[in-house]
Amino acid sequence: MYFTYILECADQSLYVGCTNDLERRMKQHNDSKWGAHYTKTRRPVTLLYHETFSTLREARQRETELKGWRREKKFALVASKSI
Question: Which of 23, 50, 52, 71 gives a 20 to 30 Å CA spacing to 65?
Fold first, then answer.
């Protein structure tokens, strides 16, 4: 199982990513030197939203799609569904 997710950083910016282990990845974003460089400098981060996919390809495609969206559209998606 794969996940595409949206995080909100401490500076209120948004980060979109994908992983096969959401819990581990959240720990990396918040605590580890292995978190994404973008989130390492904007901790703590909060999980706002995630979707589940059966293949990495699907998750990456959705990640790319979401990264192309404006901030307002991402927040509308988050508001329309709960985690």
Answer: 23
Half-sphere exposure of 44 (CA within 13 A, CB side): 6
Q: What's the CATH number where 46 sits?
A: 3.40.1440.10
| Alpha helix ranges (H) inside the chain | 22-31, 37-40, 56-67, 71-80
What backbone phi and psi angles, to 5 degrees, belong to 36? -60, 145
Contact 39, 71 (CB under 8 A): no
Phi, psi of 4, rounded to the nearest 5 degrees: -110, 135
The per-residue pLDDT for range 26-56, each reduced to its tens digit, is: 999 999 887 788 999 999 999 999 999 999 9
Instruction: Please name the residues in contact with 4: beta carbons below 8 A apart, sequence gap of 6 or more.
Output: 16, 17, 18, 50, 51, 53, 59, 62, 63, 66
Q: What is the CA angle 66-33-68, rounded to 5?
A: 10
Question: How many distinct structural domains can be found in the chain?
Answer: 1
